[in-house]
Specification:
HSP12-like protein, 108 residues, 4 helices, mainly alpha, single chain, HSP9_HSP12
Length: 108
């Protein structure tokens, strides 16, 4: 599931699985536009408002973009952004754990 206004993970996966050589010009154009729109939405949306998976995806995407623009290897940049992704996942685990261990108000 994706955040509101973002490109769905299912759409991204199906686009990635189909080779460009099998896509029409219209499909490639639509993909290009929706990818750019999703990138912009990821940059303007606060990290606090992103879902866990959307935050991880955006961190990885930012790392790839930075590596591309700086000429650094993707592996080097990926290590940096994996730390940010792990932090986001840890926050989610702590939140879920805290909610699971809260006292049930109906048992008071």
């Amino acid at each position: 599931m994706s955040d509101t206004g973002r490109k769905g993970f299912g759409d991204k996966a199906s686009e990635a699985l189909k080779p460009d050589s099998q896509k029409s010009y219209a499909e490639q154009g639509k993909e290009f536009i929706t990818d750019k729109a999703d990138k912009v939405a990821g940059k303007v949306e606060s990290n606090d408002n992103k879902g866990v998976f959307q935050g991880v995806h955006d961190s990885a995407q930012q790392g790839k973009d930075n590596a591309d623009s700086q000429g650094e290897s993707f592996a080097d940049q990926a290590r940096d952004y994996m730390g940010a992704a792990k932090s986001k996942l840890n926050d989610a685990v702590e939140y879920v754990s805290g909610r699971a261990h809260e006292e049930d108000p109906t048992k008071k």
